[in-house]
Design a protein that fits this description.
Enzyme class: transferase
Helix content: 55-70%
Shape: elongated
Catalytic activity: ATP + protein L-histidine = ADP + protein N-phospho-L-histidine
Distance between the termini: 66 Å
Subcellular location: Cell membrane
Number of domains: 2
CATH superfamily of the largest domain: Histidine kinase-like ATPase, C-terminal domain
Largest sheet: 5 strands, mixed
Strand content: 5-15%
InterPro entries: BphY/WalK/GraS-like, HATPase_C_sf, HATPase_dom, His_kinase_dom, HisK_dim/P_dom
CATH topology of the largest domain: Heat Shock Protein 90
Structural class: alpha+beta
CATH class of the largest domain: Alpha Beta
Keywords: ATP-binding, Cell membrane, Kinase, Membrane, Nucleotide-binding, Transferase, Transmembrane, Transmembrane helix, Two-component regulatory system
Oligomer: single chain
Order of helices and strands: HHHHHHEHHEEHEEHEEH
CATH architecture of the largest domain: 2-Layer Sandwich
Mean pLDDT: 81
Low-confidence stretches: none
């Protein structure tokens, strides 16, 4: 322990010796300084330093010697660097809080998953009476009542479908099946499902499909087209909706153009934001602000770009730009 004590103070010892030698050297060079008194002072200084070192050694090592007597195998470095009681309390508190938050997060995650599963189950259950309602509506003879009920049935069906796809959206990558599909069959199927609503509003369709075969997922592409057609019908009156496909820069484009009220320039940057509705008719209770948001998210997973142009009171054009076939290699390989 003496050796360790000296090693720890080695720099101070060398400094003291250096100063004493420097003093002797200066007295030797300068005849005006007597050498004998200087040597006497150095002797006293060394004696004092030695006595001081012995006293400090006894005081500083007494505690550690008692530890060695109490437990010979005790690691002194562990005692020296041991945590204080306050540090131990803080560490234990943080550990408990972290574990508590982890447990709460796990419980919330399980509850959310259960809530999502319950909602999906409920939506599927509601589809059964909706199908029965459709059969009953089809048997009605009063055309006015039949048209009104069909329109309301379509609205309920679209809202349920939107909610169903919204809950599936976080897991869309697990649900994709990329294949070559005929976009004409998807478009005509979606138009037919919205037929009663279109007839009530006097809306027709002008379809020109130059390119029909595309690579995509049929179910999610149908959902995207459904949202775009629903928006076009909702904000149009007694007009035609133009639908066409064409090839540009080696990319297939699907364009849906309506001649409705259009989108205000100040709203354009926000049309794909979740829950955003137009500021032109902000009291429109039929708008949920979810259609374009969900369509954008689904399109992103399918590598489809959405481009929107609009003029106020003139109409809106939404273009889906499909990727080249080689862009799907990483999806097809999953």
């Amino acid at each position: 322990m003496i050796k360790q004590f000296i090693i720890e103070r080695c720099s101070w010892i060398f400094l003291f010796l250096f100063l004493q030698l420097l003093l002797v050297f200066v007295a030797y060079l300068d005849p005006a300084i007597p050498l004998t008194p200087i040597l006497y002072i150095i002797f006293l200084s060394c004696l004092i330093i030695i006595i001081f070192g012995i006293v400090r050694y006894q005081k500083e090592t007494k505690f550690y010697k008692s530890l060695n007597d109490w437990e010979p195998n005790l690691d002194l470095s562990t005692i020296i660097h041991a945590e204080s009681p306050f540090e131990q309390i803080v560490k234990e508190t943080l550990t408990d809080q972290t574990q508590k938050l982890k447990n709460e997060a796990a419980i919330h995650f399980v509850n959310l998953e259960q809530e999502k599963d319950d909602l999906l189950s409920w939506i599927h259950e509601v589809k059964t009476p909706l199908t029965a309602m459709q059969l009953i509506i089809d048997r009605l003879e009063d055309e006015v009542v039949k048209t009104q009920l069909t329109h309301e049935w379509v609205r309920i069906h679209l809202l349920l479908d939107q909610q169903l796809h919204q809950k599936r959206m976080p897991f869309i990558e697990n649900d994709l099946h990329i294949e070559k599909i005929d976009v004409k069959s998807i478009i005509f199927r979606e138009i037919k499902s919205l037929q009663s609503w279109c007839m009530q509003k006097g809306i027709g369709f002008d379809v020109d499909l130059e390119k029909r075969a595309i690579l995509s997922d049929s179910k999610w592409l149908a959902f995207i087209i459904r949202q775009l057609l629903t928006n076009a019908i909702k904000y149009s009156e007694s007009t035609d909706i133009l639908i066409k496909t064409y090839l540009q820069n080696d990319h297939i484009h699907l364009e849906i153009r309506d001649f409705g009220r259009g989108i205000a320039p100040k709203d354009m940057p926000r049309i794909f934001d979740k829950g955003f509705t137009s500021t032109l008719q902000h009291r429109d209770n039929a708008a949920t602000g979810m259609g374009l948001y969900l369509a954008k998210k689904a399109a992103h997973s399918l590598l489809i770009q959405i481009r929107v142009t609009s003029e106020l009171q003139e109409g809106t054009t939404i273009t889906l730009i499909f990727p080249k076939a080689n862009k799907f290699q990483h999806i097809l390989s999953m």
